[in-house]
Amino acid sequence: MSFLPRISLRRTFLIARRDYLGYVKTWGFWLSFLLPFIFGGFAFIAATSDIDLTPTQYVTVIDETGLHAERFYDLYDEELEEQAQAALSTKAFFIQDKNKRQTFQRILRADGTKAAQNYISENIPGVSTKYEEPVPAFKFTDPPADNLKDLLPYLRGEIQMTIDDKPANLGGLIIFKSSDNPSEPDTQYWSTNVNKLDAPNLTNRYLRRLARTNYLEPKGLSVKEIDRRIALAAETSTFNPVKTEAADQGVNKSDTVPFLVATVLAFMLWLTVFSGAYMLLTSMLEEKLNKLLEMMLATTRFSEIILGKLVGVAALTLSMMAPYIVLGIGGVLGYVFYGADQDVVKGLISAFNAKMIIFLIINLLLGYILYGAFFIALGSLSSSMQDAQTLTTPILFILMACVPVIFLGMTAPDSPLLKIATFIPFSAPFAIIVRLPSDPPLWELLLSTGFLTLLCIGTIALAGRIFRYGVLSGAGAGVVIAWFKRVILRRKA
Amino acid sequence: MYFFNMTPPLALDSISKSFGGKAAVQDVSFTVEPGQIVGFLGPNGAGKTTTLRMALGLIKPDTGSVKLFGETPGENAFGRVGFLPEERGLYKKQTAREAIAHMARLNGIKKRAAVTLADELLDRYGLGEAKRKKNKDMSKGMAQKVQLLAAIAHDPEFHILDEPFSGLDPVNQQVLEDMVREIARRDRTIIFSTHVMEHAERLCDRIILMASGRKVFDGTTKEVLAHAPRRVNLASDMAGLKDLVEPFASTVDEHEDGSLSLILKPTAQAHDILERSVAQGLPLTQYEPIRPTLHEAFVTLVGEDVRQDMDITEGATT
After folding, report:
1. Cys staple from A167: which of A109, A160, B168, B250, with CB 3.0 to 4.6 Å?
2. Residue A492 has what pLDDT?
3. How far is A489 from chain B (nearest CA, A)?
4. A490: contact with B, CB 8 A cutoff
5. Partner B contacted by A106 (CB < 8 A)
6. DSSP per residue over A221-255, as a string?
7. Which DSSP symbol is given to A484?
8. Nearest by CB to B20, which of A294, A298, A493?
9. Within chain B, which residue ranges are assigned CATH 3.30.70?
10. Using CB atoms, which residue from B56, B81, B89 is nearest to A290?
11. Is A301 in contact with B75 (Cβ distance < 8 A)?
């Protein structure tokens, strides 16, 4: 007597094919499949066209004190420059030489975008100095009137201004009013749009800076100089005592990228298991509602139907995720071959090592089979979506509880919770993947995989019995309870 | 007549099955011989579907044994049995051609041959226009015919049809009856369960009757009809008819117009009444022996207690 059920590959293939084509022929599949391309297309159109989805807000300032307007405009320009620096800082990604990259970043922080662009054009000829200019959240305009009463019709939209020969509404008014203490002006913000807070937030930042200035400058200290020195401050170097590749054991992106990759892979694994298992549930439910299973069982084994469904939906899930997988692999390979930051390249190469690929495949298979078998069994006991939702809620909770485990791997790979999760088969597929970059003991990985394999075998055996019972019986939670009493507890009704 | 071999397609030996302690089938034995058309009859809950499921190996009997083509049901019977279950359906988004071809392929037929076969069957049974029609767009009758074609497309040796007539209008019932006859002409073996006695009476060589999980009759149609009460309707313009018939009748019902309906005693014959009336000079204005029906035979066999629950309907669709 063989331990494994006998399977006809031909019949299994036919069932898998029917399930696969049954879904592939639907609009929903193609919509999901094309979704990344559709979003990519929209993003491209939005990036390349002149469509302005958020019209510019024009704000004007009345400074009754005569002390603040100019300094307020300076802060606005400084913040725009900071945004430009952030945009230009992405150029660091393309500077291969580590020293030049650090110099570029330091010049950018300390001396601004112009100096950093000059540095690139003089020292790094292959890298373009062009960058996407940041779009300001609002723009200043001269006040069309000099007092609040006359400006109110503009704010209410009753009168429009003309800016660049086009009609425009006045979106906001900032008033610096005189107070007893000239260094603490009474500041007001007027606007009909109370949800857009960029201008009042800038005003508050200005007032906070003013408070610092008023405190420090009488003591002979320059706020600007303090800010410049903070920008130029040295940064902590990170070292990893177990690192053996680098002589100084210094940590760089090659050390952090594998953790990021493992987190992304574990999350993709979770997504695949979740969507695959859920599709199996709906496929099983469809089968039940179509009432074809009993007819098929005269010519097909139970095990062939279960395996056929698992294979068919696995192929379907992979097809649906194919655009993401192809884009992901293409992106990784593209960066490995053409990427500038060699630390990232090293990190990517070390992230996709043989151990990761082997355990990813094993855990993808086992995770999918484990959850898939449960969902097939529960789907066979359901006769409606309500039944299915009721029956699968506990397993969905378990699956959802695995998400925090995945992200724990990034920040706390040595967390006891993560270690425990490695030995709980329901969370093991995800915990193993996120732990791999921290190089856990091999025995832990093998033991965890062993537990998972055993539970998979048990689940398939149990699912087979539930499936057989569910197909030939009624549906709903009552049926599960009756089955449990009869088969597990061996009780008579 | 040609048979693939003389091994009985189905042999049940004292099979019993309980669910949750409640007996669904008790000690049922019968053998279906090659080429027979067997009517498997009984009221709701009689155990017909459970018996057929055990016959196919979908569920295992608690006791007793099942032999399908001489072996335990399983791989050896795949492709040799065509099964139409009581609860049936089709993939809604498949076309009729795809549905039939899919089942044919599961039964071992190659892809191209399966599609050709599906087209031939659909044409033969007047469903040619439904080839490319999605199952969800078909009428119930059409869908049911497609289901039957899907079950039998691979031309199995043994057909197990569970309530094939249920849900069909009289016209489609007749079409299905013709299909069953056509299958039988090819010397295939058929067992079908039904509530509709007329179909069984017209189609079957043999009747097996189930009641309360037990087999209560197994024999030819003629034999089962012998269990039906023999009724005679009589009338006379003269008095004394009731006294004349009472020695021959187990029950006598007198109608308002004076005519009588009686059920003959097991030992009496209808012509005994005719002879007695001539001998006594009592002329009859009506003498009408009623042809016994399967319905009556079954009611007699199943018994009054079960009759309360059963919905066997003479000549009616369910």
Report:
1. A160
2. 52
3. 12
4. no
5. no
6. --HHHHHHHHHH------B-TT--SSTT-B--HHH
7. I
8. A493
9. 231-291
10. B89
11. yes
A154's CB contacts (< 8 A; 6+ apart) are A144, A145, A160, A161, A169, A170
- Rounded CA-CA distance B16/B214 in Å is 9
* Selection from A168, A149, A157, A159 nearest residue A193 by Cα: A157
Tally Cβ neighbours within 10 Å of residue B120.
13
CB < 8 Å to A294, chain B: 58, 83, 85, 87-88
**ipTM of the modeled complex:** 0.77
Distance (Å, whole) CA B67 – CA B73 = 6
The CATH fold of domain B231-291? Alpha-Beta Plaits (3.30.70)
Strands in B10-19's sheet, in edge-to-edge order, are B22-32, B10-19, B63-68
What is the H or E stretch that residue A399 is in?
helix A385-411
Q: Quick one: which of A291, A479, A302 has its CA closest to A391?
A: A479
Give chain B's residues under pLDDT 70: 1-5, 304-318
Q: Is the pLDDT of residue A386 over 60?
A: yes
What is the pLDDT at residue B157? 93
A288-330 tens-digit pLDDT: 777 788 888 888 888 888 889 999 999 998 898 888 888 889 9
Answering whether pTM is above 0.80, one says no
Q: Which residue has the higher pLDDT, B12 or A1?
A: B12
Numbered ranges of CATH 3.40.50.300 in chain B: 10-225
Q: Does residue A383 contact residue B89 with C-beta atoms inside 8 Å?
A: no
- A166-203 pLDDT, tens digit per residue, is 899 999 999 999 888 777 889 999 999 888 899 999 99
C-alpha closest to that of B218 among B301, B282, B293: B301
The shortest C-alpha distance from B138 to chain A (Å) reads 14
Closest residue on chain B to A467 (Cα): B58
Give the A window 7-26 contacts with B, CB below 8 Å: 8, 11, 14-15, 18, 22, 25-26
* From A289, A294, A299, residue closest to B78, measured CB to CB: A299
* Contact (Cβ atoms closer than 8 angstroms) between residue A239 and residue A337: no
Confidence (pLDDT) at B313: 43
The per-residue pLDDT for range B22-58, each reduced to its tens digit, is 889 999 999 999 999 999 988 888 899 999 999 998 8
Cite the beta strand spans of chain B per DSSP E.
10-19, 22-32, 37-41, 63-68, 81-84, 158-162, 189-194, 206-211, 214-220, 231-235, 249-254, 260-264, 286-290
Q: Quick one: how far is CA B295 from the chain centroid?
A: 12
Beta strand B189-194 with B158-162: parallel, antiparallel or unpaired? parallel
Q: Tell me how close the Cα of B296 comes to any Cα of chain A, in angstroms.
A: 33
Q: For residue A18, which residues of chain B lie inside 8 Å, CB to CB? A: 91, 102
Question: What is the helix (H) or strand (E) element at residue B198, kind and residue range?
Answer: helix B197-203
Interface test with B, best of A294, A471, A491 (most B CBs within 10 A): A294
Residue with tokens 């008023």: A214
Amino acid, single-letter form, for residue A485: K
Chain-chain contact of A294 with B83 (C-beta, under 8 angstroms): yes
| Selected residues 444-483 of chain A with any CB under 8 Å from a CB in chain B | 468, 472, 482
Options 3.40.50.10330, 2.40.50.140, 3.90.76.10, 3.40.50.300; CATH for B10-225 is 3.40.50.300
Q: Would you state the pLDDT for residue B312?
A: 45
Across the interface, do B91 and A295 touch by the CB < 8 Å criterion? no
Query: Chain B partners of A290 at a C-beta cutoff of 8 Å?
Result: 89-92
- Contact across the interface for A295 and B21, Cβ inside 8 Å: no
Please, are residues A60 and A146 in contact by the beta-carbon 8 Å criterion? Answer: no
Q: What share of chain B is helix, strand, coil (3-state, %, to 5)?
A: 35, 25, 35
